[in-house]
Amino acid sequence: MNKKHTKHFCYIPFDGITIDPRGHAQLCPVWSDEADHSLHDFTKSSTTIENIFYGERIKKIREKMLNGEHINACKYCYSREQHNLESKRIKYAMSRKRFTDDITPKIKYLDISFSNQCNLGCVMCNSIHSSHWHQQEKSMPEKARNALKTHYDYNQFKPVTLQKEVLESILDNINDLELLIIKGGEPLYDKNCLAFLDKISNVKPTLKIRMVSNITAISKKTLETFSRLKDIEIFASIDGIGKTYEWIRGTNFNNIDKNFQRLLTHPNISVLGINFVLSIYNVGNMIDTINYFSKYQNNIFSQNNISIYPAIQPYLCANLLLNQHQNTIFKTIIEEIQKSAFIIPSIELQSIKNIIFNIDSAFLVINKDDDSYNRYESFIEFTNWMNTVRKFNIQDEHNYIADIINTYTEENND
Description:
The structure is a single chain. The protein has helices at residues 12-15, 49-53, 56-66, 75-82, 88-95, 131-136, 142-152, 164-172, 191-203, 220-226, 242-249, 253-264, 286-293, 323-339, 346-356, 375-390, 399-413, and strands at 16-19, 24-26, 38-41, 109-113, 179-183, 208-213, 232-237, 269-278, 306-310. The relative contact order is 0.10. The chain folds into 2 domains: 3-107, no CATH class; 131-413, TIM Barrel. The protein starts with 11 loop residues before the first helix and ends with a helix. Mean pLDDT is 89; it is low at 362-369. The radius of gyration is 21 Å and the shape is globular. Strand 5 (179-183), helix 9 (191-203) and strand 6 (208-213) form a beta-alpha-beta unit. Strands 3-2-1-4-5-6-7-8-9 form a 9-stranded mixed β-sheet. By secondary structure, the chain is of the alpha/beta class.
């Protein structure tokens, strides 16, 4: 039987593990609050990659998959597939080098966050993924803070840095490793990550390294390290252009633009892409962003290298759009994408539609059923607070945001 076509089988637990910024080793990078998804908690004790990957917990998950059993920790992928959306399970299977039934467990894939160290406090982020946000969060008003902590299910996040034992165990398995995915925090801001990349350049410079980065911190030393690595893929987190970008990310757009151009010409970067997180704050800036970056297309930044990821936090999700704006904005997106130099897969367009029109979809599977806050009230409070942090108003850039705030405020004053 070809296992990759069975409903509950996934290659990922047979090929590698994920370590997230909380210090949790888990089955895969897909967010889940199921107990079976977590394999080890590095905040409580240290261990090696081998002990986790060849341990009893993940072994039982593999056995269930081989027996065709339902895995609670995998409900996110199941739900996406039920809604005819691409799942991480299917995407990984399609990209896997060996399309055979050889599923002998071997560490070929690691998805790692070295820490939550980050120099930005982006609007869609949280303390788990950003040390800067952790400081910024202290000034949040009550309703906005309650909404954020309810969504991410944390009260007080304790920063974690991967221990030496873990990093050395990765190097011990470097010969079998085919792909190292590095996230954050911000990898290029994290000194431990940069030191680790330097070590890899000495022991296996040909290893494929895929990094998600805000590309703000690209020093001369970092570029020198890149010059010793032979296969680097960088996916830049860019969620708008101009003032929209600066409000969302809290840093200068022109600097990002220059850094993007620097990376375009680096000889050891094999793939350069953009990850665009779609929210209520940039749904009207998405097409402008795509069109702006079309001028940089080349052999490493191709027509397939912009990915759209809808934010699902209730207080900043694009489904906050008023009915009067939904059709107009979505129609514009579809019409302009058809003329664009980039190809946005139909699955991603369906996801955008599901979010804008609040269609029951897999994106809502991890939203918590919680009535402790009103999402419009939280959105307005969050927006006003972030306006003070950024020192300008996002509704001055996008009229549809002003309309949401005015409409909801008027309704509550009646």
